[in-house]
Amino acid sequence: MPEFLLDVQGLETQFRTPDGIVHAVNGVSFGLKEGETIGVVGESGCGKSVTMMSVLRLIPSPPGKVVAGKAFYRGEDLLSMPADKIRQIRGAQIAMIFQDPMTSLNPVLTIGKQLTEPLQLHLGMSTEQANTRAAELLEMVGIPKAKDRLKDYPHQFSGGMRQRVMIAMALACTPQILIADEPTTALDVTIQAQIVELVKRLRDEIGMSIIWITHDLGIVAGLAQRVLVMYGGFIVEESEVKDLYANPRHPYTVGLLGSLPRIDETERKRLYSIEGLPPVLYQKPTSCPFAPRCQWVTDRCWKENPTLQEVAPGHRVACWVDISAGRK
Predict the structure, then answer these.
(1) Is 325 helix (H, G, I), strand (E, B) or coil?
(2) pLDDT tens, 49-66?
(3) Which of 77, 169, 268, 269 has its CA 20 to 30 A from that of 7?
(4) Are 38 and 55 in contact (CB under 8 A)?
(5) CA-CA distance, 17 to 62, in Å (whole number)?
(6) SS3 state of residue 31
(7) Closest CA to 78 of 58, 62, 104
(8) CA 35 vs CA 81, 118, 226, 284: distances in Å
């Protein structure tokens, strides 16, 4: 039996633009175990969403193209299987909640129509069976009077309710893997907390694996077991959640954690700010992509891009400097 339910190896994705080729994902490798929740963090443009959309072959082509890598799901490579087979897996076995609930639902179709379609397509349900199941799904995600709401259109739901509908759609076929792409970004803090708690409860009930994409390290702390930190299309740090927060080993991770307000500090401290801007990836980086913004940068950082190396059990870092020793 393979160690990972999903095993991604050496994934590279590029986009052809009028200004040149953008190297969005540059050799990303990671594994997801059964029942595990992984958090993928990093600032906008670091390659989080493109990585997961590449795995599901949802990158629009042109301009995008997966140029290298493999993504094994239960021993089969998602990137090389026939188009009709990947369509059977998407939604049924690997589901995705997209970033913006306001635009992800079709405005001219009822919620019931959008919920019953995957049930009929993947599970072969009749119209009556699909409607019954759709109402059950809306109840499961906490939408009152679920049966009556099947006739409503997306504009008749609030932002938080639309996100719940998106979660219900993703869970319709009881997938093995749920990929959530910043599902709480457009929502207020109270609704965010409700959505996170809902996903945690459903994860425990259904027993699925989750990949949670976010730039909010606070959400990851209470949801994930393991974290991947991405920068410039690379994974720069991978660790168990507790170890990452207690002992970050990459300068970028230190900066991200330093920008979070903390309630356990005894003294007032100014929040940390990472100077500079994210890299423009018209060329694949040959040096460390974080070097221009790093306070620990050395000559070697400008000459050679580090690979992920294990610095502690289950903790890997792509950095030439041991920042935990407080030296260059």
Answers:
(1) helix
(2) 999 999 999 998 889 899
(3) 169
(4) no
(5) 10
(6) strand
(7) 58
(8) 25, 23, 12, 34
| Residue 63: partners with Cβ closer than 8 Å, 6 or more residues away | 15, 16, 17
Q: Return the percent helix, strand and coil in the chain, to nearest 5.
A: 35, 25, 40
The string of pLDDT tens digits covering residues 185-208 is: 766 777 778 778 888 888 888 888
Cβ–Cβ < 8 Å for 215, 44: yes
Span 132-143, average pLDDT: 87
Q: Are 51 and 96 in contact (CB under 8 A)?
A: no
What are residue 267's phi and psi, to 5 degrees? Answer: -115, 150
Tokens 């301009």 locate to 63
Cα separation, 117 vs 131, in Å, equals 10
Using DSSP's 3-state secondary structure scheme, residue 160 falls into helix
Distance CA 143, CA 124 (A): 25
Residue 327, pLDDT > 50, answer: no
- Helices then strands, counting H and E runs in the chain, come out as 12, 12
Any idea which residue has 């720069």 for tokens? 236
Q: Which residues contact 190 (CB under 8 A, 6 or more apart)?
A: none
User: Is the distance from CB of 59 to CB of 13 less than 8 angstroms?
Assistant: yes
Tell the residue number behind the tokens 């990929």, with chain if given: 179
pLDDT: which is higher, 305 or 61: 305
